[in-house]
Amino acid sequence: MVFVLTVDQRDSRRTADLVPELLTRLNSRPRRVGLMRRFERTAGDEVQGVFSDPGAAIDVVVELLRADRWNIGVGAGPVLEPLPRSTRAGQGAAFVHAREAVTRAKSSQYHVNVEGSDEHQAEQVETVLWLIASVLRRRSQRGWEVSDLLADGMTRTEVGAKLGISQSAVTQRSQAAGIAEEVRGRVLAAELLGGADVVVSTDRGSRAR
Question: Residue 100 is inside which H or E element, if any?
């Protein structure tokens, strides 16, 4: 099974073109685990990437949800193989599902939708992503400070020293920010999308209980 992300910029007629910046951010990091084909602009203000690993796909979805500027479609299913070198030339059910999902996302409250051969599975993943999106929308700047530092590998003691607050205050901000809920949601979404044997970012998890 392959996972295709089709991502479309919201309100693109009234805002600057954000696609070049997004492509740089998504493609310039050390190669992502499970990224089969790099993100490319496919048409207008839309980009597309192909993953073999559900956890890696979910990580990118959450990154895009944080930005709150994109309609996100996730498609799960088979593709025609061998995959062409260009993402734009890919064909198969996963690409069709991603197209259907991003179309739905344009009118969705949380701007992320999931389509797949297993409709029940897709709906479950979509539900978890909506819950994660709700958590991220409520997170304050202080909460993001703690979340980002924990994601960088700092301990709560180190985060407290960095921010000039107590370890207890770090814990309180973590709880208010829903960091543990986000981490567990990522893992659950990845498991539902592709099965239990997945790799997903959980750096925050060991410090966010």
Answer: helix 93-105
